[in-house]
């Protein structure tokens, strides 16, 4: 393995924490004897080109500094290769880093864990979800939660998590379940009314909401959480329990496991790792061992 490590940096992550996080992470890696170079693109497309070039040139590891969006971009560069991925999580959600057991919002600690992992060969292969040519690490969301994302992304004010809290209130005011058609491994199409359908490679999204609490990054299967045709009042009662994964015991919630799923619904956007994939229908498949990660 090359001793040169590539830091893949989003300077705007966590309201500017990304730029400040790169230095302590780099210092920890250099203290462990690694050579560090930094990649910052002019935009996400340019950054991905540069990251893929670093992987092609044989970098010893690609270390993404930012949030879930940056982690998702890094996955597009390393998926299907043997180049290890490390995460210095300083964004708002950081769900993929949590799933991997990595430090969150402590760049020096994350840098030390990554350095120790690389030197001690503490590497493991974990699954990814794939939609078309796009990979994701945590959850493909659709339905009420993706509608909240849509609305929040259109809002210019306020910023941060408050924007999405207000977007959620606005979506609740117009809430109604959506007609879905879901096709799993068995090929049988199921017509249902659902509030949301979440396809989990990892267990959480939105900064710790454990929407698919039983998801395992190494079992070759998605955990698919289907919240049925519940009322607004039921949704409000059930929602707080998502943070501990307690919603899966509710009679309106069903969890199924599958390696492949096709989701169809009108006027619904799919989001994976918080990034928009496009309108449904979408087909996702679980790709076993698709990425090598550094972690405890």
Automatic annotation (TrEMBL):
SUPFAM superfamilies tied to this protein: NAD kinase/diacylglycerol kinase-like
Q: Which UniProt keywords apply?
A: ATP-binding, Kinase, Lipid biosynthesis, Lipid metabolism, Magnesium, Metal-binding, Nucleotide-binding, Phospholipid biosynthesis, Phospholipid metabolism, Transferase
Q: A Pfam family in this protein?
A: DAGK_cat
Q: What class of enzyme is it?
A: transferase
Q: Which InterPro entries match?
A: ATP-NAD_kinase_N (IPR017438), Diacylglycerol/lipid_kinase (IPR005218), Diacylglycerol_kinase_cat_dom (IPR001206), Lipid_Phosphate_FormReg (IPR050187), NAD/diacylglycerol_kinase_sf (IPR016064), YegS/DAGK_C (IPR045540)
Query: Could you confirm whether the keyword Hydrolase appears in this record?
Result: no
Residue ranges of domain DAGKc in the record: 1-135
- Could you provide one GO biological process annotation from this protein's UniProt record? phospholipid biosynthetic process
Which Gene Ontology cellular-component terms appear in the entry? Answer: plasma membrane
Coiled-coil residues = none
Look up and give the organism this protein is from.
Answer: Streptomyces davaonensis (strain DSM 101723 / JCM 4913 / KCC S-0913 / 768)
Which Gene Ontology MF annotations are present? ATP binding; ATP-dependent diacylglycerol kinase activity; metal ion binding
Primary gene name: dagK
Q: Which cofactors does this protein require?
A: Mg(2+)
Give the family this protein belongs to, as stated in its UniProt record: Belongs to the diacylglycerol/lipid kinase family.
Q: Which protein, by its recorded name, is this?
A: Diacylglycerol kinase
Task: Name the EC number(s).
Answer: 2.7.1.107
Organism domain of life: Bacteria
Looking up PANTHER family in the UniProt record yields: LIPID KINASE YEGS, SPHINGOSINE KINASE
């Amino acid at each position: 393995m090359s001793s040169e490590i590539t830091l893949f940096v989003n300077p705007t992550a966590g309201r500017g924490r990304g730029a400040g996080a790169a230095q302590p992470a780099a210092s920890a890696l250099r203290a462990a004897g690694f050579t560090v170079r930094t990649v910052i693109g002019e935009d996400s497309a340019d950054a991905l080109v540069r990251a893929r070039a670093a992987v092609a040139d044989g970098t010893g590891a690609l270390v993404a500094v930012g949030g879930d969006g940056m982690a998702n971009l890094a996955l597009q560069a390393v998926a299907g290769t043997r180049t290890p991925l490390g995460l210095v999580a300083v964004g708002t959600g950081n769900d993929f880093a949590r799933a991997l057991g990595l430090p969150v919002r402590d760049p020096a600690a994350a840098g030390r864990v990554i350095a120790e992992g690389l030197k001690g060969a503490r590497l493991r292969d974990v699954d990814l979800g794939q939609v078309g040519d796009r990979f994701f690490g945590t959850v493909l969301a659709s339905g009420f939660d993706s509608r909240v994302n849509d609305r929040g992304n259109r809002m210019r004010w306020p910023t941060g998590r408050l924007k999405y809290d207000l977007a959620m209130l606005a979506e609740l005011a117009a809430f109604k379940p959506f007609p879905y058609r879901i096709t799993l491994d068995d090929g049988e199409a199921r017509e249902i009314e659902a509030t949301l359908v979440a396809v989990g490679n990892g267990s959480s999204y939105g900064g710790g909401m454990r929407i698919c609490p039983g998801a395992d990054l190494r079992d070759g299967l998605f955990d698919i959480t289907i919240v049925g045709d519940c009322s607004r009042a039921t949704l409000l009662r059930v929602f707080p329990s998502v943070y501990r994964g307690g919603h899966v015991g509710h009679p309106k919630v069903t969890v199924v496991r599958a390696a492949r799923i096709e989701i169809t619904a009108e006027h619904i956007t799919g989001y994976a790792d918080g990034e928009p994939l496009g309108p449904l229908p979408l087909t996702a498949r679980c790709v076993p061992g698709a990425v090598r990660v550094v972690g405890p």
